[in-house]
Amino acid sequence: MGHDSLAEATPAREALLPAMNAVRAAADTIETIIADDLWPLPTTQEMLYILKRRERPCPS
Q1: 8 Å CB contact between 44 and 34
Q2: Distance of CA 42 to the CA centre of its chain
Q3: Mean pLDDT of 33-46
Q4: CA pair distance 40, 27, nearest whole angstrom
Q5: Residues with Cβ < 8 Å from 31, sequence gap 6 or more?
Q6: Which one of 41, 42, 54, 60 is CB 3.0 to 4.6 Å from 46, fit for a cystine?
Q7: Above 70 in pLDDT, residue 2?
Q8: For residue 40, which phi and psi values (nearest 5 degrees)?
């Protein structure tokens, strides 16, 4: 018998989306607190809008 993909995916979506939103909110807040020269990763805006990145050291 076939699987009902939507029925299987819905509980995962309902559990994961709130957690993903919470992590995103925390990351957005942290990005505004940490100085750009100390933040080794691209910011959310840099990833979404492909802004010119500043030279950043590679995380070790």
Answers
A1: no
A2: 11
A3: 84
A4: 13
A5: 39, 43, 44
A6: 42
A7: no
A8: -80, -5
Lowest mean pLDDT among 9-18, 25-34, 36-45: 36-45
Q: DSSP states of 1-60 as a string?
A: ----HHHHHHHHHHHHHHHHHHHHHHHHHHHHHS-GGG--S--HHHHHH-PPPPP-PPP-
Distance CA(53)–CA(42), nearest Å, equals 7
Amino acid at 12: A
Residue entry with tokens 């995916």 = 9
pLDDT confidence tier of residue 14, bands split at 50, 70 and 90: very high
